[in-house]
Amino acid sequence: MRERLERLLAGRYGTDQLSRFLLGAGAALMVINLFLRIPLLNALVLADFVWIYVRMFSRNFARQSAQNARFLALRSRFLSFFGDIPGAVRQFRTYHIYRCPQCRQKIRIPRGHGRICITCPRCRHEFIRKS
Ligand SMILES: [Zn+2]
Fold this sequence. Notes:
It is built from 5 helices and 4 strands. By secondary structure, the chain is α+β, with helices and mostly antiparallel strands. 4% of the residues are buried.
């Protein structure tokens, strides 16, 4: 069985990050659609699985790896956009962001120091806030 599978896949593109993502996305959509029961979503899942098979058995390596590279580039852009949400939350919890009442400059102040006098680094205006 394993040997037959190997012979079947010889010279074929096989799987990559894009097909693993498509598999995960298809499986997730399938589970979601158990509850939603939208026919269009079923067709989408089917198309998704067909696409995985087509890519897996493709002999056009250049085309498939180019698709995969585009997917990886898109994924890293997505991750760098959303990946820093924990960092932003941490920042929000440890710092207060104030705006200078005079020049609107944003100023980051660590929390938990009580009432403090803040000097704007841009216009030197001083104002008092609770940190
Ligand atoms: Zn200012």
